Amino acid sequence: GFAAEVGTSTRLQSTPTFLDPQTAEESLQRKTETVVTEERDAWALGTMIFLIWCGSYPFFSFEEAVLPLAALLQNVVFKSKTTRPPPPLQHCKGMPSPVKALITGFLQWNSDDRRRPRDVVEGFLAATASEPATSSATAAEGSVRPRASRSQ
């Protein structure tokens, strides 16, 4: 696997179609080490969510995805330094606005502008916490109250 702790330096390993522009550029420069960051993970997560919802990669076609590695990475770096197109969400039918905002937040060309996965999770947990968590002992005793329905 590629797992590494955020903030650590690690050997550059990747799935090229999920690389953010900064890591793509490092790879083209033949850097062998990189620092693991939430921003890099955010780009990969945004790409994955886009792929699941839309059935394509956000910034290149399936045909481009199988190009030689250098050509694919050069394409990503070129776009990041020139046009910086937004994710083509108009091709994703039926996508709810919150999902569009999530993808757009993750797929910012400037890494400093990207939403962080941790912030999204914390926001989700805060928004969905309707009552204090119960202990496993309480749950095992069967005294867990059902959540209120959404229609209430």
TrEMBL record:
It comes from the Eukaryota. Residues 7-17 have a biased composition (Polar residues). GO terms for molecular function: ATP binding; protein kinase activity. The keyword Cell membrane does not apply. Pfam families: Kinase-like. Residues 1-32, 130-152 are annotated as: Disordered. Keywords: Kinase, Transferase. Gene3D superfamilies: Transferase(Phosphotransferase) domain 1 (1.10.510.10). Residues 130-141 have a biased composition (Low complexity). Residues 1-125 form the Protein kinase domain. SUPFAM superfamilies: Protein kinase-like (PK-like). This is Myosin-light-chain kinase. It comes from Toxoplasma gondii CAST. The lineage of its organism: Eukaryota, Sar, Alveolata, Apicomplexa, Conoidasida.
